[in-house]
From TrEMBL:
Alphabetical list of SUPFAM superfamilies matching this protein: GST C-terminal domain-like, Thioredoxin-like
Catalytic activity as recorded in UniProt: RX + glutathione = an S-substituted glutathione + a halide anion + H(+)
Keywords: Transferase
InterPro entries linked: Glutathione-S-Trfase_C-like, Glutathione-S-Trfase_C_sf, Glutathione_S-Trfase, Glutathione_S-Trfase_N, GST_alpha, GST_C, GST_superfamily, Thioredoxin-like_sf
The organism of origin for this protein: Echinops telfairi
The protein's name: Glutathione S-transferase
Lineage of origin: Eukaryota, Metazoa, Chordata, Craniata, Vertebrata
CDD domains noted in UniProt: GST_C_Alpha
Length: 222
């Protein structure tokens, strides 16, 4: 039996969370090594395991993988969540990149001071409601299918549900003007692998707290 993918990152969401979601959505078990101390990060670097001196790092299939987007697309292709042809694949890429842009704004929020955070939340909510969510509502409306691409569960669906849940953590009512996205959320949440990942005790990580922020700042020295 092939070894489980091994994920090296902080004990929190950050750039690794979408990788966790994608593995979980694909029904793949994984192990995690949490970086708690600067020395762990330095050791990975000194051992030449971080291609550009950065995490996430995923060890799998005899490779040491870095660069989040590359890891995600490898996983999507490997686990058959990346469309049936190049045209579906590029649509999945577009949808994923849009949601990643939105999610990165939210992930960075926790590293800002309280005043900046308030301003940023307002901006993120404005962009979520006027730029990102309408796009996905329209996609679902136009094709009338259950999934975003090719009427088949894909990486794009997994990325979108992760993004929806992150935005809802900021404003619980955010989907009130998006009925098809509401139904999408319910549908995707009930896919067995996703349902399992949403249960308490799974490897899904909570929203960042001060300890997480302090650990990341300590390890990366900023
Ligand atoms: N393009 C990279 C960026 C990775 C990145 O910035 N990782 C941060 C932690 S989330 C890091 O390791 N920073 C250390 C550094 O850049 O020196 C990716 O998407 O994986």
């Amino acid at each position: 039996m092939a070894a489980k993918p091994k994920l090296y990152y902080f004990r929190g969401r950050g750039r690794m969370e979408s990788i966790r979601w994608l593995l979980a959505g694909a029904g793949v078990e994984f192990e995690e090594v949490f970086l708690e101390k600067r020395e762990q990060y330095e050791k990975l670097e000194n051992d030449g395991r971080l291609l550009f001196g950065q995490v996430p790092l995923v060890e799998m299939d005899g490779m040491e993988l870095t660069q989040t987007r590359a890891i995600l697309s490898y996983l999507a292709a490997k686990y058959n969540l990346y469309g049936k042809d190049l045209k579906e694949r590029v649509r999945i890429d577009m949808y994923v990149d849009g949601t990643l842009d939105l999610m990165m704004m939210i992930a960075l929020l926790h590293f800002k001071n309280p005043e900046e955070q308030e301003e940023n939340i307002a901006l993120i909510m404005k962009k979520a409601k006027t730029r990102y969510l309408p796009v996905f509502e329209k996609i679902l409306k136009d094709h009338g299918e259950d999934f975003l691409v090719g009427n088949k569960f894909s990486w794009a669906d997994i990325q979108l549900i992760e993004a929806i849940l992150m935005v809802e953590e900021l404003r619980a009512s955010v989907l009130s003007d998006f009925p098809l996205l509401k139904a999408f959320k319910t549908r995707i949440s009930n896919i067995p692998t996703i349902k399992k990942f949403l249960q308490p005790g799974s490897q899904r990580k909570p929203a960042p707290d001060q300890h997480y922020v302090d650990t990341v700042k300590h390890i990366l020295q900023f």
